[in-house]
Amino acid sequence: MKLERLAEMDYEAAQSEKRDKLNGRLQVWSLLIALVGAFGLASVQSGSIAYIVGVLPLLVACLARYVRHSEAVLDQVKEYLFQKELELKYTGYECWRVKHKQAKSGEHLRAFRSCAVLIDVIATGSLAIRLAEHSIVLSVVVVFLEALVICLTCYWLSDTKRK
């Protein structure tokens, strides 16, 4: 196999990885909407099944961690493609993107963070109201624990340099 063909296949594989990560964003949003729908339905039920809504912030936090990792990999792939274009002295999309960089980037993470925090706050509030009917102390403890999970979610989706 020629070195040029190997380099071409490598570039195509990186482009494919980038495309997969970008397409994965839609799947993440679909999963988040499905979780909200399922837990929203469970939260309006009578009886103890409604308390399952307390699990929603935990699942959203797990999803946030996945999103952060996926975006970090996407950033690495974009940087790799940019370096390849520089090596080949080819002005492709990645070179254009770097040259015309917008003042803000990472809007996907910001939007996901806002949505995740809103969902978590609503779920925690709903759970706190139900628990307050039985025990104020239990309600306060649960709200505190859920607040820690919300803080972790915000950290994982923060604007700081992704790992």
TrEMBL record:
Residue stretches spanning the membrane: 26-43, 49-67, 111-129, 135-157
Q: Can you tell which superkingdom this protein's organism belongs to?
A: Bacteria
Q: What is this protein called?
A: Uncharacterized protein
Give UniProt keywords alphabetically: Membrane, Transmembrane, Transmembrane helix
The source organism is Thermosporothrix hazakensis
Q: Does the keyword Transmembrane apply?
A: yes
